[in-house]
Amino acid sequence: MTNNYKIFTLLACFCITAFALQGCHHDEPQDDKDTKFEVTDSLLKSLLIDTVEDASARTEITLTGSIAPDENKMVKVYPMVSGVAENIKVQLGDVVHKGQTLAMSDS
Q: Which H or E run includes 86?
């Protein structure tokens, strides 16, 4: 029994040492390969080289279209009384919450 205990203890120490030493390795820094771009012969044949010239840059484009609200995300608000809105608390596009004052009206 004592001999088995010694073998088991020795085996356990060996396993613990092996696991501990496995995490204690040091990687040597690898030489980074030269990652410069290389021009191949087929690319060189299709390459067009030109000189740089001054030109006016166009900074404006004209597009046609229309802007409309998303009807699925819009809620129509009907006040309980009619009147003129005097103090408007929110703007178009603001996120509002239940119970929030949107406007004050003079009826």
A: strand 84-88
Q: What is the pLDDT of residues 49-75, one digit of tens each?
A: 888 888 877 778 888 998 888 888 888
What φ, ψ does residue 106 adopt, rounded to 5°? -105, 110
Polymer length in residues for the chain: 107
pTM: 0.29
- The answer to whether 89 and 103 have CB atoms below 8 angstroms apart is yes
Three-class SS state of 3: helix
| Spatial distance between the Cα atoms of 103 and 85, rounded to a whole number of angstroms | 6
Asked if residues 87 and 104 have their Cβ atoms less than 8 Å apart, the reply is yes
Q: How sure is the predictor about 31, in pLDDT bands with cuts at 50, 70 and 90? A: low
